[in-house]
């Protein structure tokens, strides 16, 4: 399987201009080299890094340690504006904030900040649109526009970090503790930029945000070669596999990439990831009424996962579907959901039902952008 070519649908349209180069696209040594290219002292790159990643400053006038005569050049060269907020919607008494961003070329993406009593999580997009074409997903219906750059991904997290640090979210000043790559796009189809973003998020300040890799989750619909590549990166992020069905017949319909990489091949790659990284894999399973929520499918899912041993390598995260307006795909009946959980747990599978936030603000990825 490792030798199979990735599907053509994953390639973004050609001919688009690239996002402007940003400090977050570069490692600290690369930033210092770029400063020299601009005829500036290398240490200015570190000063800018402190402002961006540590102080979370976005106003050049606050960068008072930079010479006024060089400030404009430094900011233009390293901190170009990557995205503009079009709308921010709030739910859960302000602790859930969904932002619709316009990128430099007009593409629209979304991010969500969710604050809990013990943590603050950013859900970020990795692509404008998505080429995976899952029929129940709002993003998948619009197709893929383009890959996002490393800096565009990082900027979503930094924007959330600024909001928390400035006390704009109820609960007082705070910091981003978790990042989930579960917004718009298939993260592993934009592998280089996503890994770049993960490295920037986890690099010690001022090279990056200094987050723990264990607080980062990268999701995928099952790009088997990329799952294996991720396992070799040496970054202990959590892998989340969006499975949604335990049998090939249904998964071929729900997750079209399954026609390339079957349930068995995909789950095996996830197990290999867990085995190599010693990190438990999360199986994401959107519960859809009358589609994939039958009791026998719960039994089959447990059997598929248990076939790789019972050492606790996997956790199932059931997701009540946030339906697209006018779609046939709707959330499961709560009684069916409870029975699904009961059957998984009866077979020893650790299971939770996701706390779904933001339903009233088009919380599912792609819904707000689609309306816009």
TrEMBL record:
Disulfide bond recorded as keyword: yes
Cofactor note: Binds 1 [4Fe-4S] cluster. The cluster is coordinated with 3 cysteines and an exchangeable S-adenosyl-L-methionine.
The reaction(s) this protein catalyses: adenosine(2503) in 23S rRNA + 2 reduced [2Fe-2S]-[ferredoxin] + 2 S-adenosyl-L-methionine = 2-methyladenosine(2503) in 23S rRNA + 5'-deoxyadenosine + L-methionine + 2 oxidized [2Fe-2S]-[ferredoxin] + S-adenosyl-L-homocysteine; adenosine(37) in tRNA + 2 reduced [2Fe-2S]-[ferredoxin] + 2 S-adenosyl-L-methionine = 2-methyladenosine(37) in tRNA + 5'-deoxyadenosine + L-methionine + 2 oxidized [2Fe-2S]-[ferredoxin] + S-adenosyl-L-homocysteine
Sequence positions that bind [4Fe-4S] cluster: 130, 134, 137
Active site annotation, chain numbering: 110 (proton acceptor), 365 (s-methylcysteine intermediate)
GO terms, molecular function: methyltransferase activity
Gene3D superfamilies xref list: 1.10.150.530, Aldolase class I
Name of one Pfam family that matches: Radical_SAM
Residue intervals of the Radical SAM core domain: 116-359
EC id: 2.1.1.192
Sequence segments annotated as region (Disordered): 1-21
Cofactor(s) for this UniProt protein: [4Fe-4S] cluster
UniProt-annotated location(s): Cytoplasm
Keywords: 4Fe-4S, Cytoplasm, Disulfide bond, Iron, Iron-sulfur, Metal-binding, Methyltransferase, rRNA processing, S-adenosyl-L-methionine, Transferase, tRNA processing
Location (main, coarse): cytoplasm
Annotated GO biological process: methylation
Domain of life: Bacteria
Family listed: Belongs to the radical SAM superfamily. RlmN family.
Function per UniProt: Specifically methylates position 2 of adenine 2503 in 23S rRNA and position 2 of adenine 37 in tRNAs.
Note: Reaction proceeds by a ping-pong mechanism involving intermediate methylation of a conserved cysteine residue.
Name recorded for this polypeptide: Probable dual-specificity RNA methyltransferase RlmN
Designated gene of the protein: rlmN
């Amino acid at each position: 399987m490792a030798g199979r070519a990735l599907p053509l649908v994953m390639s973004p349209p050609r001919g688009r201009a690239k996002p402007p180069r940003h400090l977050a696209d570069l490692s600290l040594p690369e930033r210092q080299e770029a400063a020299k290219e601009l005829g500036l002292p290398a240490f200015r790159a570190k000063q800018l890094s402190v402002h961006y990643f540590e102080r979370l400053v976005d106003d050049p006038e606050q960068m008072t340690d930079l010479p006024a005569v060089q400030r404009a050049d430094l900011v233009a060269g390293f901190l170009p504006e990557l995205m503009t907020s079009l709308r921010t919607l709030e739910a859960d008494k302000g602790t859930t904030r969904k932002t619709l961003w316009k990128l430099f070329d007009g593409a629209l993406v979304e991010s969500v900040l969710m604050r809990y009593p013990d943590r603050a999580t950013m859900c970020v997009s990795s692509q404008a649109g998505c080429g995976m074409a899952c029929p129940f997903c709002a993003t998948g219906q619009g197709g893929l526009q383009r890959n996002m750059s490393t800096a565009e991904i990082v900027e979503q997290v930094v924007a959330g970090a600024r909001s928390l640090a400035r006390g704009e979210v109820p609960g007082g000043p705070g910091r981003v503790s978790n990042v989930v790559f579960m917004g718009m796009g298939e993260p592993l189809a934009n592998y280089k930029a996503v890994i770049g973003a993960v490295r920037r998020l986890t690099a010690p300040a001022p090279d990056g945000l200094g987050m723990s890799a264990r607080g980062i989750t990268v999701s995928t619909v099952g790009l088997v070669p990329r799952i294996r590549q991720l396992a070799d990166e040496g970054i202990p992020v959590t892998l989340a596999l969006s499975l949604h069905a335990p049998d090939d017949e249904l998964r071929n319909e729900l997750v079209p990439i399954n026609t390339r990489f079957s349930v068995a091949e995909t789950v095996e790659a996830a197990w290999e990831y867990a085995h190599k990284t010693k990190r438990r894999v999360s199986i994401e399973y959107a519960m859809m009424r009358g589609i994939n929520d039958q009791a026998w499918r719960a039994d089959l899912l447990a059997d598929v996962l248990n076939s790789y041993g019972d050492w606790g390598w996997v956790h199932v995260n059931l997701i009540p579907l946030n339906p697209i307006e006018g779609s046939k795909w709707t959330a499961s009946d709560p009684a069916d959901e409870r029975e699904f959980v009961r059957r998984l747990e009866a077979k020893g599978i650790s299971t939770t039902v996701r706390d779904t936030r933001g339903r009233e603000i088009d919380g599912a990825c792609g819904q707000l952008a689609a309306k816009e």
